Amino acid sequence: MIRFDLTGQVAVVTGGSSGIGLATAELFLQAGASVAICGRDAARLERAERGLRDGFPAAQLLVARCDVLDAIDVSAFASAVQARFGRTDMLVNNAGQGRISTFADTSDEAWRDELELKYFSIIRPTRAFLPMLRAAASGNASIVCVNSLLALQPELHMVATSSARAGVLSLIKSLASELAPERIRVNSILIGIVESGQWRRRHEADEQAQAAGQSWDDWARELARKKNIPLGRFGRPEEAAQALFYLATALSSYTTGSHIDVSGGVARHV
Hints:
seven-stranded parallel beta sheet; globular; 9 helices; 7 strands; alpha/beta; 270 residues; Rossmann fold
């Protein structure tokens, strides 16, 4: 990757304790930025912090436990970033997972939970960090959200998640238009299947795969084939992170209200 100097800038990554969020934090640290990450799981956060400090001994790093659906937690996290770094230049909203359900078996409570997670995991951090983004001295204030290809290409067995993801895409477009006069860019990535703890747990729960001794790699390749992913594999967290890095930094200084497809070619729309 081309070296890009972010010295003096501050990047905030929600859901930064594993997967795409952690890989994104690593890219920001490699570029010299100060980084704040948060997550709900204290043990996972501890492991992430240990790994980041081992990999980047001189890093300016803030790690905090925060539930992005809790307004008090998010406010406290923003205050901690303000106290530690005094600014925020880039906010990466990365939280949430898919819910497998059809319309017939999705309860009212499940619908509410899914809509709240997808919307407020963006709304609350964005609201909390906007004052610092507005004051960003770098001239590169940006918000980037991790969204899913389901926003444009819904799947029947993920009806609630697909619906919520489509709404989030609209929200991002609206935010981009509203914040453009303030020189704050808002973009997203649309991911397909990316390797994650959730997918590894599905492999472990697959009784047929376990009985046959099917490895994770073989299981993932077979699923990629069944889902007709042209590149024939799952994405890697660092591949999604590279797209987020591009959209968050001045590398994409003339891009807002847009998205990057990171789905391995599975998108069918033009």
